[in-house]
Design a protein that fits this description.
The protein folds into two domains: 68 residues, no CATH class; 95 residues, Tumour Suppressor Smad4 (Sandwich). It is built from three helices and 15 strands.
């Protein structure tokens, strides 16, 4: 299931239009996220219709990498959560964590300590899930240790990720 970027209703993965509001769905050519507009708010890739994805110059291997990580087989699921703040994030490869951008902004838009573009979640088969601080004002920590800006830092099951002043428990399954 995917979430319509317009009305926020759940719809089938293979839909080209939202069953509820009729919105034409666009998919990022890099990370596969559903969205609106010309550029992906998660990774900056181009938003294309399913037909444009098929017609694009991408070969089949590149198209396969655009499937969201939550759907892709063999990739562990990273969840970041804080029960007391009612935050539960299921990671998407390339997704931005921030107060103004990214798929999780609703959790952080009221926190003035979180930067507009604070951090990014990345997955690779070689390193697993990583977090990258995007030169945020108040920093990102892993297990209470500050991480260097723009340096992918691996996240393991049980780690605590701190976005400014918000602690998130990591679960990798």
């Amino acid at each position: 299931m995917i979430i319509c970027p317009n009305c926020k209703e759940k719809i089938d993965d293979d839909s080209h239009y939202c069953d509820q509001c009729g919105q034409a769905l666009l998919f990022c050519n890099r990370c596969g996220q559903v969205g609106l507009g010309r550029r992906c708010t998660h990774c900056g890739g181009l938003m294309l219709s399913p037909e444009e994805m098929k017609k694009s110059v991408l070969n089949r291997t590149e198209v396969a990498t655009t499937i969201p990580t939550s759907v892709a087989a063999g990739i562990p699921v990273l969840t970041l959560y804080n029960g007391s703040l009612n935050i539960r994030i299921t990671a998407t490869n390339g997704a931005i964590i921030g107060r103004r951008q990214g798929p999780y902004r609703q959790y952080f838009e009221q926190s003035m300590y979180v930067s507009g573009v604070h951090a990014q979640l990345l997955y690779s088969a070689r390193t697993g899930w990583c977090i990258v601080d995007k030169n945020s004002s108040n920093g990102t920590k892993l297990n209470q240790r500050p991480i260097q800006p723009e340096a992918p830092t691996p996240i393991k099951d049980g780690d605590v990720v701190t976005i400014a002043n918000i602690n998130l428990q990591a679960s990798v399954k």
